[in-house]
Amino acid sequence: VQLNLDTLAAVAQYPELGSIGGNVGTVNSFTGVDLDDVLGGVLNAGQLLQGNNLLCFALEVVRMASPNYLNNIYKTLEAPLKLVNGLLGGKSLLSLDCPVWDELTLEGKPLTTALQDRYPGAKVGGF
Amino acid sequence: VTGLVDTIAAIHQVFGMGLDLSLLLTVMGTVWSGNPLSLDPSFSIGGNSTAVYNALDNAQGLLGTPQGIEHSHNLLEADASPFRDDLYLTGDAWTMNFTRFEQLHNSVPAGEDFSFDVMAKWAADRWHESVETNPYFYYGPFTGMLARNAGFFFVGRLFANHTAGTSEGKLSEFCLRCSDLPDHTLTNHPQPTKSCAPSSASMKPTTAALNTAKATSKSPRTGSTRPSTTASCS
């Protein structure tokens, strides 16, 4: 997948582009999350940059977004999430041969919740 | 406002993107910023529009008003975009910031191309600019790491000229200008002598193009081979 290759090449050159994180209320306060924690042992941070894993991981974030993850745009995400699951669920669709995660967490909390707790900019939407 | 099937076909036809990726992007556009429950799922590429058909009418109670891609911050739209401001900084994440375009444009000597390396450096520069100016800069696992970066590479890949001999795609100064700003005057650079018309047309699929795309989408191409019908710029 060309998008994945482009992203990997850019991350290799500029590692910050492959981080997850944000400023915490002031400028120049960027802190990244521990990728190994988020990846939960399914992959390590180095493996994230192999094959289609980065793309797989990003899609997993989307797929696992919890229906109780609310924002001011939608009152419930249940229906759209079913649609995403239906369309992304079949491996054949994207043919990426992705690793399987049971749940994405950070410091024991669901990933999006943890990200919203930590980064004020994620409150609008934390994907 | 554009429908799900039309969009997939048009992205595939006009930009030569693989059907899998165009399906994914279109689903994301529809689910997060449009109306996915409709019989003809659709979304607006701008703000909210009454033309986004609500099949259930009361879907607003269920999903809220479809906001359009412009208002999908941290769902599809993210901080540190190529040419747009961060939402927090200006409250407007969708209006082109021409100064940024000019910065990128002038970072490459006249006559040279906007290569992958140029676009990657621009992505990194914009990332650092957001860290330095936006206290609420957020770089999420999907919106930041993947979708936001994709925006930079899409500029480099999708707006480039893919002809035999430049199979990787070549984004010239001329193509970059035509992709977004056919009528602006850039400092230090003469106006292109060629017309932007063919390129501009390719950015905005006509009804005819959509119909052609629909017809051809029955035999899906995999991979990113460039359809031969794409208008060229060089």
Q: Could you give the order of strands across the largest sheet of chain A?
A: 1-2
Average pLDDT of chain B works out at 59
If helices are DSSP runs of H or I spanning 4 or more residues, what is the number of helices of chain A? 6
Beta-strand share of residues of chain A: 5-15%
Structural class of chain B: mainly alpha
Mean residue pLDDT of chain A: 75
Distance between the termini of chain A: 22 Å
Number of helices of chain B: 10
Q: How much helicity do the residues of chain B have?
A: 40-55%
Q: What percent of the residues of chain A sit in helical stretches (DSSP H or I)?
A: 40-55%
Q: How many extended strands of chain B?
A: 3
Which regions of chain A are unreliable across 5 or more consecutive residues at pLDDT < 50? 66-78, 90-94
Query: Strand count, sense and closure of the main sheet of chain A?
Result: 2 strands, antiparallel
What's this model, at a glance?
The complex is a heterodimer of chains A (127) and B (234). Chain A is mainly alpha-helical and 127 residues long. Chain A has helices spanning 2-13, 35-39, 53-64, 78-89, 91-94, 111-118, and strands spanning 21-22, 31-32, 105-106, 109-110.
What does this structure look like?
The complex is a heterodimer of chains A (127) and B (234). In chain A, 42% of the residues lie in helices and 6% in strands. Chain A has helices at 2-13, 35-39, 53-64, 78-89, 91-94, 111-118, and strands at residues 21-22, 31-32, 105-106, 109-110. In chain A, the strands form 2 sheets. A two-stranded antiparallel ribbon of chain A has the order 1-2. In chain A, strands 3-4 form a two-stranded antiparallel sheet. Chain A is mainly alpha-helical and 127 residues long. Chain B has helices spanning 4-15, 19-33, 59-63, 87-90, 98-106, 116-133, 143-158, 173-180, 197-203, 207-216, and strands at 2-3, 42-43, 138-139. By secondary structure, chain B is mainly α. The radius of gyration of chain B is 18 Å and the shape is globular. Chains A and B meet through helix 1, strand 1, helix 3 and helix 4 of A and helix 2, helix 3, helix 6, strand 3 and helix 7 of B.
